[in-house]
Design a protein that fits this description.
The chain is α/β, with parallel strands linked by helices. The protein is built from ten helices and eight strands. The chain has one domain: TIM Barrel (Alpha-Beta Barrel), CATH 3.20.20.70. An eight-stranded parallel beta barrel has the order 1-2-3-4-5-6-7-8, surrounded by six helices. It binds phosphoenolpyruvate (PEP). The site of phosphoenolpyruvate has 13 residues, from strand 8. Phosphoenolpyruvate binds next to strand 8.
Length: about 240
């Protein structure tokens, strides 16, 4: 069975109403057959993006979600059902910046993925090793542990997620994994997903630019990209989608 191919933008903590309007005006026309496109915007811009993307095939995404499923006293949290209510289709969970700056554990990330699925959202589960872990020869072990936590929590439902391999040393650094480095980790993730590995799209993230996208996307187990910095520049994002 063929796997869906995606380019998803992660705006991180960037944007303004004015800048978003001109960026999204360019993004609306990017999806085509064989190239799905999503944008994960800051919470406060979801309503604006929903309106601009309404008649397009671009998937609206958020960048994080609470693991809490029942409403209640969780100040500052936003639940998966609220995101669904806001028209969100997909949500990033376990981005390395959340793991690093907010102490998110494998168990919490898995719980967030479960909460997203329960509300009908597609979680984009991010995994990836740090430079120290790669230098210590632990890349496969670390990524295997992170994927394993999600598989254990979701069971067969893991077939409904998108995976993103984002080596921490490549995010926002200008340093990209080589196509071969990405491919070998993607193949190991696919194996760790068991039967779901045949259909779950696995995206690569980490300093993807127009210039390197084609070579990375051409690898057999790479099904697209999760794009940070380059998703903020319409021409760069369009070129990356074109490379898919
Ligand atoms: C990301 O934050 O998901 C990412 C891949 O960032 P960048 O493309 O800027 O490295």
């Amino acid at each position: 069975m063929s796997r869906a191919r995606w380019v998803v933008g992660n705006w991180k903590m960037n944007g303004s109403f004015a800048a978003n309007a001109s960026l999204l005006a360019e993004v609306v026309g990017l999806p085509r057959d064989g190239a799905n496109v999503g944008v994960c915007v800051p919470f406060v811009y979801l309503a604006q993006a929903r309106q601009i993307l309404a008649d397009s095939r671009v998937a609206l995404g958020a960048q994080d979600v609470s693991a809490q499923t029942a409403p209640g006293a969780f100040t500052g949290e936003i639940s998966a059902s609220m995101l669904a209510d806001a028209g969100v289709a997909q949500v990033i969970v376990g981005h390395s910046e959340r793991r690093q700056y907010h102490g998110e554990t494998d168990a919490l990330v898995a719980a967030k993925a479960a909460a997203a699925l329960a509300a009908g959202l597609v979680p984009i589960v991010c995994v990836g090793e740090t430079l120290a872990e790669r230098d210590a020869g632990q890349a496969f072990e670390v990524v295997g542990r992170q994927v394993g936590a999600v598989v254990a929590a979701l069971g067969e439902s893991v077939s409904q997620v998108l995976l993103a391999y984002e080596p921490v040393w490549a995010i926002g650094t200008g340093r990209t994994a080589s196509p071969e480095q990405a491919q070998e980790v993607h193949a190991s993730i696919r194996a760790a997903l068991g039967a779901a590995g045949a259909t779950v799209p696995i995206l690569y993230g980490g300093s993807v630019k127009a210039a390197n996208a084609s070579s990375i996307f051409s690898m057999p187990d790479v099904d697209g990209g999760l794009i940070g910095g380059a998703s903020l520049v319409a021409a760069d994002f369009a070129a990356i989608v074109a490379a898919l």
